[in-house]
Task: structure prediction
Amino acid sequence: MFGRILIANRGEIALRIIRAARELGVETVCVYSKADAGAPWLSLADESVCIGNAPSSESYLRIDRIISAAEMTDSEAIHPGYGFLAENAHFAEVCRDCHIEFIGPTPEAMNLLGDKINCKRLARQAGTPVFPGTDGEIEELDEAIEIAAEIGYPVIVKASAGGGGKGMRVAHNVAALRTAVTAAQQEAIASFGNGAVYLEKFLEKARHVEVQVLGDKHGNAVHLYNRDCTSQRRHQKLIEEGPAPRVSPEIRDRVCESAAELIRKAKYSGAATVEFLMNKEQEFFMLEVNTRVQVEHPVSEMITGVDIVKESISVAAGEPLSWKQDEIKLNGHAIECRINAEDPSKNFMPQPGTIETWKTPGGPGVRVETHVVPGYSIPPNYDSMIGKLIVHGRDRDEAIARMRSALGEFSVSPIATTIPLHQRLLNHHAFVSADFDINWVERLLDE
Ligand code: MV4
Result:
């Protein structure tokens, strides 16, 4: 195991990694920006190093300064958390060149899965279900038109190097498809320096279901079942839950095992998420693979008892996974609400400033992941997520009741948060009956 690791992140995930490392007997070093000087999580690290000004481009994204900080403090490894440099293959490569372990996949595995055309090809080999469409890159427009006619409209053109909704175009007929391909190619070159685009069937009224997986350096991979992340707005998830409702145990296990096989084939080590869309007939189609620990990882921890962050550190140190698939039992139901300092009544405008009242809920099955303490000032420079409220219950109904109760206990002032929106969503019949799709929150907000 490592003696000491550096955490190249901030906020709740920095704190989560500090706690995991401490349990493993690993010392921690935090890097921080001037905006985070004196921040509460820093006092829990063994050491902290200021790496620059408030903008992340001058601090949390500065590879040179983070590597220097690791060298200065004799850190053997770097945990990137999520966001910032977590999915930057160049950063993982610089770490390797400097003999610092990157806590996550190799740059090769990251590049393989990050390229969506390659990822889809590997998924087919692993038996992971994918959308019908072009086998690889669109080379000739006529070929794309032929395939669109076979699979039927609407279709979607996506950039191979894209992700999270960037570089995508939907086409409802052949004329629109011609424009979409050219536009998507140009956009892909401008945004990613890689003009490769592919075509697939466009699914309407979909649900977003993802599979949590863990791999080690010995060729082992396990899954931690699935999560539903359908409740989102503009690609920002609001509520996540697991296991995904309205998925039969047979289909769930088959898709989850295929996701584990995909990351085995990619020789992947660390935590990953295989994202899918699901239709009403419970057909699954892979979207992409996220090569990092995700915001919503606690949902999977609560329903399996596996500590994903501790596993991510120990597999990076070369340990085999500490769990076998048949030891990972699904227990109950978990729901997570992201608490953002945003005002839902003002188009989700970020609300930086000082939090005076911060009373977090508690009781059985209630977990709060946050770096916030009363008197904390939210800097304007970063993501507006200030905490996550996660509840666990014996089944979905108990989890919903716990979440409603916990949201009612949560008291924050004078900063506006997403808590009132979560209360509305948790009381909505569509949520209670798990009858929703990826557009339901936006539809509700438009009403
Ligand atoms: C799709 C799709 C429908 N059909 N692909 C958006 C983000 C990126 N990860 C993929 N995305 C989508 N891909 C096919 N073939 C609809 C979306 C999509 C979406 C997916 C997940 C969660 C929210 C979404 C919101 C809008 C569109």
In short: Residues 174-192 form the longest helix (19 residues). The pocket of MV4 is lined by residues 131, 156, 164-165, 200-203, 206, 208, 232, 235, 277, 287-288, 438 (CB under 6 Å).
